[in-house]
């Protein structure tokens, strides 16, 4: 009886662990937008910062993080100059630049898009070097 309960739970945990690892991203890199140089993710998508975040702490959780997906960091990621890794409310790790957590925007559809810049009365900004 216990075996029939334990096996599905172990499988579910293995799937969740795999999914979490797949969401982690390499460190940001430099890209170009219509407004000049910006930090971008591995796919070339523009990264943003949120004015309501405090240094080293994300204020974007729940529905906010659905629209502004955090740039997740692998547990073993090694930040380079200017970059840090912050711990989110759920314990996951997120890339930050100069202490500011980094996000993508769901409405950007291709590399170089900057449709999130200035969103929410200017609270969202392109992450610039």
From TrEMBL:
<dbReference type="InterPro" id="IPR014558">
    <property type="entry name" value="UCP029720"/>
</dbReference>
<keyword id="KW-0732">Signal</keyword>
<dbReference type="Pfam" id="PF03640">
    <property type="entry name" value="Lipoprotein_15"/>
</dbReference>
<protein>
    <recommendedName>
        <fullName>Lipoprotein with Yx(FWY)xxD motif</fullName>
    </recommendedName>
</protein>
<dbReference type="InterPro" id="IPR005297">
    <property type="entry name" value="Lipoprotein_repeat"/>
</dbReference>
<feature type="signal peptide">
    <location>
        <begin position="1"/>
        <end position="24"/>
    </location>
</feature>
<dbReference type="GO" id="GO:0043448">
    <property type="term" value="P:alkane catabolic process"/>
</dbReference>
């Amino acid at each position: 009886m216990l075996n029939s309960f334990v096996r599905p739970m172990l499988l579910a945990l293995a799937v969740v662990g795999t999914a979490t690892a797949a969401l982690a991203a390499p460190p940001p890199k430099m890209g170009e937008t219509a407004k000049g140089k910006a930090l971008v993710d591995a796919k070339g998508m523009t990264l943003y910062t949120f004015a309501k975040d405090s240094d080293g702490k994300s204020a974007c959780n729940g529905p906010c993080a659905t629209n502004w997906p955090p740039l997740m960091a692998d547990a073993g990621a090694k930040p380079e100059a200017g970059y840090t890794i912050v711990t989110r409310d759920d314990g996951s790790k997120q890339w930050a630049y100069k202490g500011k957590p980094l996000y993508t925007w769901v409405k950007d559809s291709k590399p170089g898009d900057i449709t999130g810049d200035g969103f929410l009365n200017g609270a969202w900004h392109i992450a610039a070097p």
